[in-house]
Amino acid sequence: MNCFTTTDKGMAAVIKVVTIRKSSLWRLLGSIFVLLLVLSSIYLESWKIVTTNIHYIPFGISASVSLGKTQAQDITDAEHLRQIARKVQVAGVNCEALLDGDKNEIKAALSLKTNASIPLMDSFYLNITTNCTDFQKQRGYIMSSLTNEERNFSIAFSVMVYKDAEMVERLLRAIYRPHNVYCIHVDYKSPLEFFRAISAIANCFPNVFIASKRVDVRWGTFTVLEPELICMEELWRYRKWKYFINLTGQEFPLKTNYELVKILTAYNGSVD
Ligand SMILES: *[C@@H]1O[C@H](CO)[C@@H](O)[C@H](O)[C@H]1NC(C)=O
Ligand SMILES: *[C@@H]1O[C@H](CO)[C@@H](O)[C@H](O)[C@H]1NC(C)=O
Ligand SMILES: *[C@@H]1O[C@H](CO)[C@@H](O)[C@H](O)[C@H]1NC(C)=O
Ligand SMILES: *[C@@H]1O[C@H](CO)[C@@H](O)[C@H](O)[C@H]1NC(C)=O
Ligand SMILES: *[C@@H]1O[C@H](CO)[C@@H](O)[C@H](O)[C@H]1NC(C)=O
Ligand SMILES: *[C@@H]1O[C@H](CO)[C@@H](O)[C@H](O)[C@H]1NC(C)=O
Question: Is the same domain home to 180 and 141?
Fold first, then answer.
């Protein structure tokens, strides 16, 4: 019953386990396509984000205000990760044994897949987001930058989505950090209910927004690229980010934010 991990890598595994259990669709197939955009000489604000506790950004307060709060760093990052790891326990799964490659535990975890829960309705998100503080807590969002290195290395994301709010929300939850910035483009053809759900989720975070223009995306045409250009332009308002990553709602990260930062730092400003 001990699903306790102390490393960020462990966190990724825990997220994986949650995913496998919840839906057989989630085969963690997504590999992250890192795209480009070198930003020369970016002005970096010296951010002081609360790192002593898992920090919930109060509803309705802008990013600059809520991210600007300062607090003494009196616990270590390792303790931080431990606190978060405690929050993402998977009932009935011994994550430690799983990570050690225990055959029986792997078998048990795989069997969870056959009991995958019914997908959440898009409308579910309208209800659950009425209180954003509750929403962030219940869904287990990481509201801390975790490490100084990550805080100093903001990443901008564009996410092209068209269906399945639950899947999109899982992706967002996996990549969400309070110092990054996220632009979500909802296809023009998407059902209204879906659009409302994604908008409600975005409204719960100061650094997540919906692209102002919605394109009718059709494969094999320019419209596939257009949403990313729209997002890039709108992400430009947030000058602090260093790299841009384009995703779709059907992807899932195989790396933690910390690992991404390490990889992108090694790029030293070059483009993949
Ligand atoms: C899956 O569901 C069945 C019936 O509801 C239950 O008996 C079984 O214990 C469940 N398996 C797991 C791994 O939860
Ligand atoms: C949504 O919330 C309302 C009241 O807050 C409640 O009556 C309704 O049953 C909820 N719907 C769902 C699907 O949870
Ligand atoms: C949200 O819920 C929390 C308790 O979980 C409560 O303290 C807070 O006042 C609520 N916020 C709003 C805006 O209702
Ligand atoms: C983060 O950036 C600040 C200011 O640019 C710098 O003083 C600090 O050493 C950096 N920390 C890390 C861990 O890179
Ligand atoms: C991201 O952009 C690159 C370059 O345009 C493209 O090759 C790749 O398919 C895009 N990834 C996604 C997930 O759209
Ligand atoms: C990183 O790039 C800068 C120029 O942009 C160069 O001076 C420096 O040597 C590079 N660092 C590494 C480790 O390649």
Answer: yes
Residue closest to 146 by CA, chosen among 75, 51, 55 = 51
| Same domain? 89 vs 138 | no
Given 13, 32, 54, the domain boundary residue is 54
The tokens for 104 are 């029986």
User: Using a 6 Å cutoff on CB, does residue 268 contact ligand 6?
Assistant: yes
131 contact partners, CB below 8 Å, separation of at least 6: 59
pLDDT(34) > 50: no
Q: Whose CA is nearest to atom 8 of ligand 2?
A: 127
Whole-number Å distance, alpha carbon 103 to ligand 1 midpoint, is 19
Average pLDDT taken over every residue of the chain:
75
DSSP string computed for 97-164:
HHHTT-HHHHHHHHHHGGGPPPPPPTTHHHHHTSSHHHHHHHHT---S--SHHHHTS-EEEEEEE-S-
- pTM summary value: 0.67
Query: Which strands sit side by side in the sheet containing 155-161, from one edge to the other?
Result: 208-210, 181-186, 155-161, 243-248
Nearest-atom index, ligand 6, CA of 268: 1
